[in-house]
């Protein structure tokens, strides 16, 4: 009983101010409406009972929102949304929008004083003095007589001279509480008339006049059962002649019923368990768990619906569910112009450039879009103002470059540029979505990046030897320092020259900080493997060994792991449409900036946390050196036959480590302690807390939703054409050189092969070219039968 609600119907009036007001008409209240038995057909029947055979549309007001504020929503086939809004309010207001023609009504107005005041209370019946004949078979009249009284606001309480000309009217005089009762009661019916007429002469006053009307009901209430939507599929019940509000409701109910009960219902072009049906069921789960596995979807469907689905169908269902949540890929490509404009508006100073092309007119930049009839997406570059300012103010001129594949239906690659903040953590600087890793795409990206953060600074770039990138630095940026990631470099080396000793010598050569040590290690490598030594000489030493690095970057990094760390944070985003991809990156950067701004406030020391730990380890390794003071701030440190010169005034050591990093080496720390000074005073300012605060000082600002984006009016961007890579498509991913081919089988690496043909080691039977051994059997001539010996035991 507590779930019942009241339906307030406003009818006989008209809308004004573009659905911002409803003038005139009558208000009728239907009490005790059951939400479990509610449907669009139920509302239509109530409207017909009011005497309107034809109407234009029905509207309902969302509780809590007035009509003036746009609270009206049209009632469509699904009327259950109305009942979901009832809790907390107890009633729903419905407004009838009439067509040009008036309802079928026999008007029989009675003279009523315009100043008469009357209000309707909450009783269930309105008594009539005069009742006309009603068809005894018309059950619609019985329903009509149980309606709530109309509630009319008190507008003329000051006028007490109510001259009612209806002599047969019941007690309609104003009472002390300015209210009156009016309603319809059950009357005696006679069968001599085919039409049921009710003479309603109750005095009703509205803003447009007095309504007293004789209703003639020409249709009867349908006797067919009406389908009531239920929350659980197992509660669905079908009856003969049941009415549905739409074909979609019937299909959805039948699908749920068949899947829930496991019924083999045959239908034309209506599979019982489709990807579209599953997508609707998976929306909530995919929203909470975007990385849900396909096997998990199959298992849950089999457990709940006792139905087996293929992995392909589970994949398509998950993809459709993601489209419902985030929109399809094509829709987001079409919205790119508006999205780029919103990014520029919300984050002033940010660089957001999109390059499109037209196969009719050739490639054109975003500034020439007015000349492109059908723009096709090619590239998108984003660099936020907060990232640019933070890098210029506090970061060292060191940038790591990397690219990763996008996993959407249109492919492409995501290029990222990552710096290093004062705490030796990655600082995302800029990113771009491009068609592929080519010389042209890398040149385009690096020129935009240099325009944003270069400012004629000498930069140091590190990469993984991507396609086209090495050539780009040689031709477009010859003056910039370029390093290669030593991990990727060694992976290429060990394909041809494997071995633990070669690995050890390679890393010793890469980590050598001065020339003499580097040359010594290379000589040892040449004695072990000449081919490995020659392979390393083919690569410029300045790109992979610390002994050839300049101290401009204040970093001795040999690995491009900062980019790898950032790529690991956006693995899920790489599967999403392009706007969702950029939004995930933007939200991640916005939260990261705020987290770092708040976290640095807890640090009390002068140095950043990771730098302080690094200095502490260097202090522990400085106790083995003996100091000899030469005078002023010049020192010599020794350990048996090793000796280095330290100049505290120039902040240098002959081991070159202090110059490369900006952090005193263990030799310098020994001298600083000997001079009774603090090591923190000799650490470069780029590693201190004030620099860290400047790095994350600016905020990445939030943006509005899609409904509030400014419309650029530019033609929608189409998705890029699928780019097929050259060669035969690969089924398996590229494995690391030392990665086993099968995780469940032990490889034969390191074992010695023995030929079964000649019995020698180092080769197998297939590649054997030697003579046959004495114990081997001679080949048998063709056609000769083998002679069998009889052995008697």
UniProtKB/TrEMBL annotation:
Domain CCHC-type: 754-769
Compositionally biased spans, kind Acidic residues: 128-137, 163-180
Start and end residues of each stretch annotated as Disordered: 110-137, 149-201, 713-793
Alphabetically ordered keywords of this record: Metal-binding, Zinc, Zinc-finger
Composition bias type Basic residues, residue spans: 720-733, 751-767, 784-793
InterPro entries, A to Z: MULE_transposase_dom, PB1-like_dom_pln, Znf_CCHC, Znf_PMZ, Znf_SWIM
Location of the SWIM-type domain: 644-676
UniProt keyword annotation of Zinc present: yes
Any one Pfam family match given in the protein's UniProt record, by short name: MULE
Zinc-finger found in the keyword field: yes
A GO molecular-function descriptor: zinc ion binding
Protein name in UniProt: SWIM-type domain-containing protein
Organism: Fagus sylvatica (Beechnut)
